[in-house]
Amino acid sequence: MQKFHLIATETLDVWIKAGKNIFEEDATGYDSWFDKHPILFENELQAIRMLLPNEVKGLEIGVGTGRFALALGVKEGLEPAKGMAKIAAQRGIQVKEGIAEALPYEGESFDFLLMVTTLCFLDDIPKAFVEAHRVLRKNGHLVIGLIDKNSPLGRQYEQEKANNPWYKNAHFHSTEEISELLSTAGFSGFKYCQTLFSTEEIPEKPISGFGKGSFVVIQAKK
């Protein structure tokens, strides 16, 4: 266990030096988005619930302030930004400090892993997927929520990210790209769900598949 902790600490320093500490400096500002956009949040939650397994032991990687974990009943989280992790802990989430590319957990520790709008901030997605595969138990699931870069919202975020402190360093990806990387890491049995079909903030019912909604959920099996 100690060796994983040392690797995670070293890589965490790199993450912070890369200028991604806006999440550290203004964690409450990030967290306030959910209060300002409750309908969008609920739409995303409904889509995730469609593919989130019922297994007992789960972890959210990039738990942020714990909004998704709390709403979805995920009790453990991993987060590199101390300010975000503190808020998540106040919400009752058991949080460890670390990053996706160097998970501070032993192999086969979890039944499922959750990553919501986290991939766009990772430096090495293939390495993160290898790590996710390592800590999942046999037949465990990785559930990913992302903004598809080819969707209307994805294109908008890409165009405006230079002026957006939260997405300034983000790199958006398509559902096809992520599926291919998951397959390379040893995952299979993909299932998809999507929502956010409109630019308006209105309640929406998620549907299976991808290509129509801006927010896509991928479930992949180890």
Can you describe this structure?
It contains 9 helices and 8 strands. It has one domain (2-221): Rossmann fold, CATH 3.40.50. The longest helix is centred in the first third of the chain and has 16 residues, at 2-17. By secondary structure, it is α/β, with parallel strands linked by helices. This is Methyltransferase type 11 domain-containing protein. Residues 59-144 form the Methyltransferase type domain.
Distance separating the two termini? 22 Å
The fourth-level CATH homologous superfamily is Vaccinia Virus protein VP39
Q: Portion of residues in helices?
A: 40-55%
Helix-strand topology string: HHHHEHEHEEHEHHEEE
The biggest beta sheet, please?
A: 8 strands, mixed
**What is the number of strand segments?**
8
Whole-number tally of structural domains: 1
The top level CATH class name: Alpha Beta
Task: Give the helices and strands, then pairings.
Elements: H1 2-17, H2 22-25, H3 27-36, H4 38-51, E1 58-61, H5 67-72, E2 76-79, H6 82-90, E3 94-97, E4 110-116, H7 125-135, E5 136-147, H8 152-160, H9 175-184, E6 188-195, E7 207-208, E8 215-221
Parallel strand pairs: 1-2, 1-4, 2-3, 4-5
Antiparallel strand pairs: 5-8, 6-7, 6-8
